């Protein structure tokens, strides 16, 4: 009898168990449409550091490309803005505003790079979000649950 009660208790508790074996089927999710983002970056040629006009031109090409990448990062990730005001005796003494952009841009391509007038260089970039999605798939493999079977 002493052995029968613990066995019946264990048998009864095991019937209420929530331990199931399950099989989960996943499927990959693809967006319906892919936008193409465009950005233009500018840089003044004469303000660049360099001993000759050619060196300043090359520096402006690089600077305009970086400016275009910054603009793409703003479109993809947004822009962080911090503001601060200092009052003393209800008189505004200091007012500051800072902005920053942080992100990684992959898959952008240079569409055009050209001089605008005589003093500015411009670079146009394009970011096809389909290519970004393909790069993302190769790394992250996003998925969702298709079906769950309990046994």
UniProtKB/TrEMBL annotation:
PROSITE patterns: PROKAR_LIPOPROTEIN (PS51257). This is LPP20 family lipoprotein. Pfam families: LPP20 (PF02169). Residues 44-128 form the Lipoprotein LPP20-like domain. It comes from Bowmanella dokdonensis. InterPro entries: FlgP (IPR007293), LPP20-like_dom (IPR024952). Keywords: Lipoprotein.
């Amino acid at each position: 009898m002493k052995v029968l009660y613990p066995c019946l208790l264990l048998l009864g508790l095991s019937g209420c168990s929530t331990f199931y074996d399950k099989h989960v089927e996943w499927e990959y999710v693809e967006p319906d449409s892919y936008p193409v983002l465009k950005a233009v970056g500018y840089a003044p040629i004469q303000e660049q550091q360099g001993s000759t006009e050619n060196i300043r031109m090359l520096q402006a090409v690089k600077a305009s490309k970086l400016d275009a990448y910054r603009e793409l990062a703003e479109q993809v990730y947004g822009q962080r803005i911090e503001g601060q005001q200092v009052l003393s005796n209800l008189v505004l003494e200091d007012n500051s505003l800072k902005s920053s952009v942080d992100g990684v841009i992959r898959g952008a391509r240079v569409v055009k790079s050209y001089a605008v007038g005589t003093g500015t260089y411009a670079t146009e970039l394009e970011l096809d979000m389909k290519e970004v999605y393909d790069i993302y798939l190769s790394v992250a493999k996003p998925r969702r649950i298709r079906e769950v079977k309990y046994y």
